[in-house]
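Handoff note, outgoing to incoming analyst
You'll be picking up this chain. Sequence as last confirmed:
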Amino acid sequence: MAHTTPTIGIIGAGAIGTAIARALARARLPATLSNSRGPASLATLVRDIGPTITAGTREQAAAADLVFVAVNWSKLPAALAGLPDWQGRTVVDANNPIEAPLFQPVALNGLSSSEVFAGLVPGARVVKAFNHLAAAQVGGDPTFEGGQRVMFYAGDDVGAKTQVGALIEQLGFFGLDVGGLVAGGGLMQFPGGVLPLQKLVRYG
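Most recent structure output, in case you need it:
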């Protein structure tokens, strides 16, 4: 069966969203980058990132096969409000429940941040990934001193995880599946999880 590359959208053009766009551009993969202010506000940024990245509306980015969401935690409900049902498409939760300037952990009432996130994207197959490395590492060279930077990912849907894992490898990282969305996502969550503190590199 022919392997087709999924179309890719990014909701959020802050540090992580932009870093994801840079990683995709380096691999010559096309993607639509969006923010709350509209495509015109991103014209200079996408020109700087590279020719495979285009500016689009939130709706255009959300219509892709695989959608990254990287938005300040408090702005997530507004960023995802009013979008159509996700209809089984893959959505990557690249968010952390903490934000500047205070960097106070958000009260999640006993849920993992990915469970809260999944509630905002009905019908989506959610995979937690791209949240545990600094923006400079996501958008920078995935090789380090002869090894590959490790990128963790977690989720409950095998097909969605396979899709994200393949993309992580295409970007040059070493993908490591750490389990289901609640348990694995909890390990990756910042603050609280143990994995964001580990900047791992795979050799061999």
